[in-house]
Amino acid sequence: MQKLRINTMILSAVFILVISGTGFAYAQESVNQFYSPATEGLTTFANNVAESVPKIVAAVILLIIGLVAGKLVGRGVEKAATKILQKVDFQKNADSQILDLSSNKLNSAKLIAATIKWFVYIFFIVAAINALQFVELSTALTDLWLWIPNLLAFVLILIIGSIIIVKFVIKWVDQEIVSHGFGNARYVITGIKVVMYGIIFAVAITQLGIGESIIPILVSAFAWSIAVAIGAAIAVGLGFTLKDVLPAAIAGAANHRSIFKVGQKIKIGDVTGTITSVGTLHIIVTNDRNEGIVIPTKEFIGKSFTILPSN
User: Under 8 Å CB-to-CB from 118, ≥6 apart: which residues?
Assistant: First the structure.
């Protein structure tokens, strides 16, 4: 009986040891399952950070260089553009020696400088993203960077066309109209301005890939406007010419047969003599010194003259 009790105790102790060992082994295995992935994850993260540090440093350096370069280039371009616009304005006002740099010219210089500055910025941003190896974002920004020259061309065409070309053309047209005595050219100049601004804007906007079909329409409109302007100029010129010719012709046709006769002695202003020829647009009077004086018949309109008795 006592021997059986001892055997039972031994078996119980062995069972407890077996159970304890199994639980410890299971617990150790559970800890290993939790610890190993965490350790591997931290190790991978540390390795990635270590590999990315040079890329991040390079990207930061590129961004700093881009910021400084963009500001310097922007300032230089703004100063250069301002000087060019000042020179153009000075030449335009060379007669008065007055320099008139309007706010529009300053804004134009700033606009050109800002466009080029952002061109530099985006160039270095793309370089920084390439250093970080973000392929999709780098591709998108590269496309944007390649589009900026089109934007710059758009801005330059607008500024050069509106400030330089249009003003010089309008000034030349105005001088020509005034020099030929065509009077007020306000409406002609307004029409030319509208057409030229439209063409300049259409050419500029095509640089952005918009409205390529507008150009033929505007060219056609410009051609028609030139034809109309030429027709108007011819009409105005004929008007000023006929202003002098028609009254004389009418006066000559109405009067030379009824009043003026060859052989009559006449006094017109300071001229005294004998009529030797009667034409439609003029008469010829020969004075006492046998000098033939041509008097346009328009001179008789609204004026008095004296027919002297013949000797």
Answer: 70, 148
Q: What is the DSSP letter of 310?
A: P
Degrees (nearest 5) of the Cα angle 161, 195, 235? Answer: 125
Residue type, 26: Y
72 and 204 together in one domain: yes
User: Model confidence over 210-222: pLDDT tens digits?
Assistant: 655 655 665 666 6
Is the model's pTM score more than 0.70?
A: no
Instruction: Tell me the C-alpha distance between 249 and 201, whole Å.
Output: 50
What are the pLDDT digits (tens) for 169-226? 777 777 776 666 655 566 667 777 777 777 777 777 777 766 556 556 656 666 666 6
Instruction: Residue 293: give its domain's CATH number.
Output: 2.30.30.60
In this model, does residue 99 exceed pLDDT 70?
Answer: no
Measured CA to CA, the distance from residue 82 to residue 75 in angstroms comes to 10
- Tokens 């020179």 sit at which residue? 87
- For the range 255-259, what are the long-range contacts, defined as Cβ-Cβ under 8 Å and sequence gap of 24 or more? 255/297, 255/300, 256/280, 256/283, 256/297, 259/307
The boundaries of the domain holding residue 295 are: 261-308
Residue 204 and residue 280 share a domain: no
Is the domain of 220 the same as that of 295? Answer: no
Q: What are the distances in angstroms from CA 310 to CA 188, 228, 307?
A: 56, 56, 9
| Cβ burial, residue 84 (10 Å; 0-12/13-18/19+) | middle
Residue 42 lies in a domain: no
Contact assessment for residue 222 and residue 199, using Cβ atoms and an 8 Å cutoff = yes
Rounded Cα distance between 119 and 131, Å, is 19
Average pLDDT, the chain: 68
